């Protein structure tokens, strides 16, 4: 791993299985942080964690659904159990629905977006703060 400005720090990244979350997790690892890689799809975060470890970093794959407060608490606890603390929480998990006029939108889809993007972020922050 390259420049180790985050050596000794522990980061937890939600939505780490692909896209921006994957890039953030790898970036933190390159900077020296141990990284908890969390997402709903375990296979995706296992691949990201394996990539980090193969490059000489420390990573833990965590399957978690941010809409479930007990899973948010468990993912924070997994990092604390593994590395003794949690310094950085990246709340990246998010979804978007179909882009259409509100009159044509699906209320269930809008509720799902709020559950992940708003309440999920809230529960993740609450889970991380004590650590």
Question: What tags apply to this protein structure?
Answer:
Rossmann fold, 4 strands, alpha/beta, 131 residues
Characterization of this structure:
The protein starts with 9 loop residues before the first strand and ends with a helix. Strand 2, helix 2 (42-54) and strand 3 (59-63) form a beta-alpha-beta unit. Helices cover 47% and strands 15% of the residues. It has a four-stranded parallel sheet, sandwiched between helices. The chain is α/β, with parallel strands linked by helices.
Unreliable residue stretches:
none
CATH class: Alpha Beta
Biggest sheet strand line-up: 3-2-1-4
The radius of gyration over CA amounts to 15 Å
How far do the termini sit from each other?
26 Å
Q: Can you tell me the number of structural domains?
A: 1
- Global geometry: globular
Give, in order, the helices and strands.
EHEHEHEH
CATH homology-level superfamily: NAD(P)-binding Rossmann-like Domain
Count up the helices: 4
Strand elements, count: 4
Helix content: 40-55%
Q: Largest sheet, described in full? A: 4 strands, parallel
CATH topology: Rossmann fold
Look at the helices and sheets and give the structural class.
Answer: alpha/beta
In the CATH classification, which architecture applies?
A: 3-Layer(aba) Sandwich
Strand content: 5-15%
Average pLDDT over all residues: 96
């Amino acid at each position: 791993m390259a420049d180790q400005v985050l050596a000794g720090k522990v980061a937890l990244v939600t939505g780490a299985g692909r896209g921006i979350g994957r890039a953030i997790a790898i970036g933190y690892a390159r900077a020296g942080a141990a990284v908890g890689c969390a997402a709903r799809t375990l296979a995706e975060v296992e691949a990201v964690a394996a990539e980090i470890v193969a490059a000489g970093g420390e990573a833990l794959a965590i399957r978690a659904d941010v809409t479930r407060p007990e899973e948010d608490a468990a993912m924070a606890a997994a990092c604390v159990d593994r590395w003794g603390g949690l310094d950085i929480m990246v709340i990246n998990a998010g979804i978007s629905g179909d882009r259409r006029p509100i009159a044509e939108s699906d209320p269930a889809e809008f509720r799902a977006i709020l559950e992940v993007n708003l309440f999920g972020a809230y529960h993740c922050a609450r889970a991380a703060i004590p650590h």
